[in-house]
Amino acid sequence: MKHILKLSALFFLPLLFSGCVAPELYLSGNTGKDAVIKVAAILPMSGSNRIFAEQMAEGLQMAAQDLNRNSVTGRKNVQLKIFDSKGTADGTAAAAAEAARWKAAGLVAGYSTQEVSRIIPYAVKFRMPVVIPLATSAAHSAASPFVYRNSYTDFQQANMLAGFLMYWRQVKNIGIFIGGKGEDEYQAAVGREVAVCFRDIGGAVTMTSPVVDRPDKNEIVEMLKSDPEAIMLTFGGKAAAQTIRELRNAGFTGIIFGADNWDDEELISGLDDFIVGDCLYTAFFCDDESVREYREFKTAFRKRFYHNPGACETQSYDALKFLVFGLRGASHLPDFDRNWRKIRQYQGVSARYTMLPKGEVDRTIYINSIGVRRSGNKLKPYARLSRKMQYSKLREYRPEFYQ
Length: 403
Known about the structure:
Elements: H1 2-18, E1 37-43, H2 50-69, E2 78-84, H3 89-101, E3 106-109, H4 113-125, E4 130-132, H5 138-143, E5 147-149, H6 154-168, E6 173-179, H7 184-200, E7 204-211, H8 217-225, E8 230-233, H9 237-249, E9 255-258, H10 265-269, E10 279-283, H11 292-305, H12 311-327, H13 333-340, E11 346-347, E12 352-355, E13 361-375, E14 378-390
Parallel strand pairs: 1-2, 1-3, 3-4, 4-5, 6-7, 6-8, 8-9, 9-10
Antiparallel strand pairs: 10-13, 11-12, 12-13, 13-14
C-alpha cells in the first residue's frame, strides 16, 4: 500500500506544480479583462416567494447600475439578466438552461433553501460560479466547489444567538418550538443548530417541541412547564406573531427569539397594538446601521425605487458586486477562488466581509429586537438594533479562548 501511495504522489506532484487545471473547472462564460461579464440571477419571480424575488431583483439592478457607472474604461462592465425559476424544479431547470444559452459567466441564486438547492447542480453542470445572498444552509457550501456565499450559515446564526443569550443576557436554559408551514428544511436545521450551540457553551435545552403551523394551547402549556428562560420559534410571519401573543397572554415574561426569517414585515405588523416584551432575532442587516456605504446606498435606492431597502436588496447588491469581482479575468475556478479570497475586511452595504476557504464567509451578524412606540392611541412595533458583531469575534467570549 505504501508503495502505491508513493507512486501516486510521484504521478500527481508534477501536475500540481505545473498548475494543471481539470477541464471541468474551466469557466464557460466570457470573463476577460475588458469583457462585458454576463451574470444571470435565477429567482422565483412568479413563485410563492415572488415578493422576496422582486426585492432581490431591485438590489441586483442597483449593483449592475453602479458597476457600469463606475467602469474604469467608461464602457459597460456587466450585463445582468433575471431568469424566473417559478419556484419549481422544472422552472429552475428551464431557467438554468436558458442562462447557459445566454452564455452567463456566473449565477446569483435565490431565494429560499429549497430553491437554492435546486440551482446548485446546474452551476456545476454549466461551469458557472454561484453566489448565495440569502439561503443559510451549510450544506450548500459543501455541495460543490462552484458554490460561494455572502450569507452566513445556519450554524453561524445559531452560534450568534446562543452566544448572545448566554454571554450578554445570562440565559442558562431555553426551549425550542420547531415547525410552521413551509421551509421545513430551514426550520429543522436552524432549530437543531441552536440547540447544539447552546449546549456546547454550557446551556441547557429544557424542551424541543415539533409543531404543525404553530403550537396549540396544550403545547404552549407543556413548554412553559419545562420552565425555560427563553423560547425560540423557528417559524416567522403571522404564525410567529400569533404565538408571541399567546405566550405573553399565558404569562411568559422571558425572551422569545427567532432566526433571520423573523426579519419580515408580516411578523412585525402582526404585533400591532400589543406589548411584545423581550423579543430578538438574527438579521443580515439593520436599518439603524450608520456606515457610510449603507447610508449612500439607501439614499440612491430610495431615489430609484421609492422605498427603503431591506435584507433582500442589500444582500443581493453585495452578492452581485462580489461575483463580478471574482469573475473578472478568471478563466477557471482556481482563478475565481483567488479573486474571491482577496475580499478581506470589505465593508459592503449589508455587512463587513472576509471571504474564507471552501466558499465560507466571516461577516457581520446583527441581533435585532422588537421595540414598541406609541402612535396615537395604538402601539406600533418596529425592528431596532441590539447588537452587531463580526462572526469571528464571537469566539473571544468563550472561556477556552483565554486558556
